[in-house]
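Thread: Newbie trying to understand structure tokens

Hi all, I'm a second-year student working on a class project, and my supervisor (Dr. K.) asked me to get a predicted structure for one chain before our next meeting. I've only ever worked with sequences, so writing a 3D structure as a token string is new to me. If someone could post the tokens and maybe explain what I'm looking at, I'd be very grateful. Here's the chain:
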Amino acid sequence: MFEYFNLHCGDQPPNLGFDKPFKCLVLIREDVTHTWRDRVSRWLVESGCLWMMAWGRDCSLWDDSVDCANIEMFPGDKPDDKFVITTWHNDETLEDVVWFATFSASHSSVTLEKLVVLDIGPDARKDEISALIEKCQLEARQEAVAKPRPSRFALRWLERLFRVPVQ
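---
Reply by user tm_fold:
Sure, no problem. This is what the structure looks like when written as tokens:
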């Protein structure tokens, strides 16, 4: 299950109203101000985001910003169930990061059933992102039935890690 939101720099983030923690895929397609990025990062942490994945422009800055928001909210030792995991994906395709968000992003202490897609850009792409998620789910089902082996996404990670092609 996923929720989709399209925002532009300066927009007020929506009231999510979730009663459970969630993971968030932040797709950055336009330049944003430092102040707005920090405001959205605090909103994510306060709203219950426990895994934030950033992809696109300056995605590593989003990773840092959400980390800082988590530290500000819980100075010192954070409870395990409030620790926000952050990753940035500047070298992956959109399909790869959607795959990661759908199948690999899981928290060690809390079950994250909902995926929030925060698409920061000039136009809404809910149908495109939904179709991409469905494609990844279909491929995963087909791969699982065809033969038990690592997913295409896992193989790409192994190739990057060991810097050799994995067949």
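A couple of things are worth pointing out once you decode it. Residues 2-7+19-126 form a domain with the Rossmann fold fold (CATH 3.40.50). The first strand starts at residue 2 and ends at 7. Feel free to ask follow-ups in this thread.
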